[in-house]
Amino acid sequence: MAPMTTLKGDPFDRTLFESVTKRRFFFTESFEIYRVAPNFQGDNRGLYDYGPPGCALQANIVDLWRKHFVLEENMLELDCTVITPEPVLKTSGHVDKFADWMCKDAARGEYLRADHLVENVLASRLARGVNGPSKNSPKLDEATAAEYQNILAKIDNYDGPELGDLITKFDIRNPDGNGEVLPPMPFNLMFKSTVGPSAAAPVYLRPETAQGQFLNFRKLLDFNQGAMPFASASIGKSYRNEISPRSGLLRVREFLMAEIEHYVDPEKKEHERFDEVTQLRLPLLDKGTQLAGQTTPRNVSIEDAVKSGTIDNETLGYFLGRIMLFLLKIGVDPSKIRFRQHLDNEMAHYACDCWDAELLTSYGWIECVGCADRSAYDLTVHSKFTGTPLVVKEALRTGPVKVERWQASLDKKLVGPRFKRDAKAVQASVEALDQPLLEKLATELNTTGSVTVDTATPLADGSSSVELSRDLLTIQKVTRLETVREYTPNVIEPSFGIGRILYCLLEQVYWHRPQDVARAVLSLPLAVAPTKVLIVPISAQVQFTPITRKLSSRLRAFGIANNIDSSGASIGKRYARNDELGTPLGITVDFDTLANGSITLRERDTTSQVRGPEDEVLQAVKNLVDGTESWHQIAGRLAPFSAHGQNDD
Ligand SMILES: Nc1ncnc2c1ncn2[C@@H]1O[C@H](COP(=O)(O)OP(=O)(O)OP(=O)(O)O)[C@@H](O)[C@H]1O
């Protein structure tokens, strides 16, 4: 992979970049003063606090997200709890399956995520051209290098035992200390706790916002007056006990997610606004390309990708397009975005297609948005467990139709006395049987005289299934006249990690002035920049105070976030500080302002300045913020300005 370069094409220097984000307090390690305190036993890895510019940047990204998705498409926003009872996450599959594979370096007592270990070691061997940890290791031959590349291209496709085989085959060790690691073991990523003084009821901190949205499906559908398709959305914290949190904000244990659940008829996955994105070209790294060991995406129009079946359906294609447009809106570099399709093993078993929007950073390509078609899985499992139908009922436009359906019925007179307290659970389990299973059980009941039915909840004796004989259970095919069609919607889920997006964006907009690494700039677009305008009086004399205050209040009235810097530092220093904060515009008030009311306006990236009467300059600022005029246009209509003492040096 080519090394990361800045906006201006210079090599990206992470140390310099980190010194800027730290100095300007975008974010910081949580509990830092405790970590450096003597005898601190805690673990603060993967926990970060956002400082003032980080908070403002995050709020602006979230605000744009809400406008771009929720308001644009009338999505139904929810705010659900983080604390989630165990049965919910047991039913969704998280208790059993939300795990990563980890390896232990027994000598150091360190835990490593198995796929990351294999990936890092093989990538490092390829970069160094040697087949071992030190530079004295044997040279990497062509065939092995090709094999490594092939493995890396599909690294997400391996399960734990397969990763274990790779570790043994290539003698992969912990890069820290070169110690051997034990075979991969699954590790569940959820934080577990209990509620109430009895501590009897286990709960988890949610690992995603999605489940809360699914559980409210019935109320959402009612709120939407039964109309389909529609989407719900949620913005909130999620928690994952990552095995080895590294890479700053990219892999943390507490993070802000913004998720959409778009509910759609499984037989109608077209999208009514698809035509708005058909011509948009996306850099797609599809399954086939990855399995062929390649990493270069193809630029394909969404229309062609859906037509050829590369993207499974229109709705998924539509959301991939909307994700691309959102990323561009907040200032992500289009040449540093790609959409990578999940390989079959990587995808949850119930999903039918899944793409990750990945952004290029100094850590490589990072998944920032996942977009999956989760089929009807979640609604089906929650419905089965709770006995609450999470379905859509639609009147058949063609009038009543004859349908043949398998129907199971229990002899109520016998069930009560036979199963006592379990009778309700047995009844619910029979009602939850779907058509294919009923068909299978009907044959079995006929031939063997009894069938075993799984129960959604454990019975009084702890068992999770029940044997039902022919005297209790009847399964037969019935013909009915139906006037409504009932179906469980499929769910298309775009899922955004706001912290990852924020970090990748910061890396991508960072650069420094030519020949001066100390003068860093964050070219954040106006739409997300923490502060839009810096107001600087030429000197700290009190006569400027009423003018700067008035300018600030006029900008606030336009809804434009601004800041006055009347410190004694030189104008150049004050601008340089704000370049590092990503402030796009600067207004200078000087002695001419006192005389004739004119002020100057500076643009961060070019450092060019224009001058004009206060009203005109403020209107120009408003136009820039609203996006109705570009800097180029403004520079063409206001007078250019250059004066000693008000420039950057
Ligand atoms: N530990 C984390 N720290 C920060 N953001 C995260 C973390 N885990 C997931 N996310 C964000 O949430 C989004 C949706 O989560 P998803 O479950 O698809 O991630 P994932 O596939 O588990 O990520 P990864 O493979 O990197 O662990 C991701 O695209 C990412 O932006």
UniProtKB/TrEMBL annotation:
It is found in: Cytoplasm. Gene3D superfamilies: 3.30.40.230, 3.30.720.200, Anticodon-binding domain (3.40.50.800), Bira Bifunctional Protein, Domain 2 (3.30.930.10). GO terms for molecular function: ATP binding; glycine-tRNA ligase activity; transferase activity. Keywords: Aminoacyl-tRNA synthetase, ATP-binding, Cytoplasm, Ligase, Nucleotide-binding, Protein biosynthesis, Transferase. InterPro entries: aa-tRNA-synt_IIb, aa-tRNA-synth_II, aa-tRNA-synth_II/BPL/LPL, Anticodon-bd, Anticodon-bd_dom_sf, Gly-tRNA_synthase/POLG2, GlyRS-like_core, tRNA-synt_gly. It catalyses: 2 ATP + H(+) = P(1),P(4)-bis(5'-adenosyl) tetraphosphate + diphosphate. Its EC number is 6.1.1.14. GO terms for biological process: mitochondrial glycyl-tRNA aminoacylation. It comes from the Eukaryota. Its main location: cytoplasm. GO terms for cellular component: mitochondrion. Residues 159-514 form the Aminoacyl-transfer RNA synthetases class-II family profile domain. Belongs to the class-II aminoacyl-tRNA synthetase family. Homodimer. This is glycine--tRNA ligase.
